[in-house]
Amino acid sequence: MAREAARPCYDPAGPDHALRAVLQDLRTGRWMAMRTLLAETTEAWRWTQRTQILAAAAAGSDVVRAWLAEEPDCAHAAVMRARVGVERALRARRERHLRAHELWIEAWDAAQTATGLAPRDPVPWICLLALAQLDPGQRWAEHRADPPAPPLPPGPWELLAEAAARDPYNREAHHRVLQFLYARDGGREGPAAAAGTARSGVAETAGRLGAGLQEAGGRPGPGVTEPAGHPGAGVTEAAVRPIAGLTEAARRTGADEPTGLQRRLDEASGYARWAAGQAPTGSALHLLPLYVRVERHRRLGERQARWTTETAAREARTALTSWFEQAPADRRAQPDLNHLAHALWSTGQYAAAAAVFEAIGPYFTPPPWLYRARGRDRAVDVFTAARDRCRIATGPTRTT
Asked: What is the dihedral of CA 170, 172, 177, 182, to 10 degrees?
């Protein structure tokens, strides 16, 4: 069969066959295989990835609660409880569910508990980072700490520093910061005003975050001082609603705050370049600018994304040479491979894109392809058309 005819599929586990088997068990309400898999997962990057995917599968059931009922002092179960809590809180906010605020509080409690039971684990801190996007007005002090570099806005930098102290250059941690920056609306008063209301002592954040990024074997930093009450205490439902593009009034008048949306995307772009500039070769952080460009495309359209510029082409080449050509094949996350193939194809670098498509293999991820498709179910068509275009451009079709 010609390789062009092979259609990929979406599978959250991708080539991780052990994880796929556990996901099947989770769907039937069994948790023993999950416990065994997590006990055998020792690498921080794989631990982070697996717990995230498992939580997405477990969020609609009580399987983690059943595990905790049997092993209430199990640190791994506590981490999964935090993961599931965050997944539920984020889903509830997207769906404007009436329990969204309550679920946020429950998730924050679970993540705080997990930081104590698993003190060397970055995932509880990543959970707290993920919840920061539910506070776009930065009303909670931990979400408006002084930035590690002057161009960056106030944000959850101490939480990132804690994650970095446990796993420097953690991929998901930095993506969670991007999600926060996309949602952030605290910048209306200006970075200086927001920073001025942060709690004392956060000026050390830059040094702590820098140390975490520079020293792969760094010891965990001290825990963040727990604020009084829960996140968002006294904040109305409307105040913590995430910003998902243009407001309804803007859609009616055609006037949004294009300035506010553009500002958020520009802040995210600046952060992505900063984080990538700190990362060593082989780090997935080199792909962050590609994700921001896709987000710009999604929110503002093709013209604003500007795929045909030299800057876009350079970002794709940098990700290729600094990550794809340096990282071990088994450490390349499927979303990263898909974003890189998309960026190289979009910028006309077909030969390089063909090599990345080859590495993707039989799996694909709907983002970023779905943002160029007419309907989510057509994302695979965009993917296969791009893959075939790149293969044709690089020589005769190979067969299997």
From this structure: 150
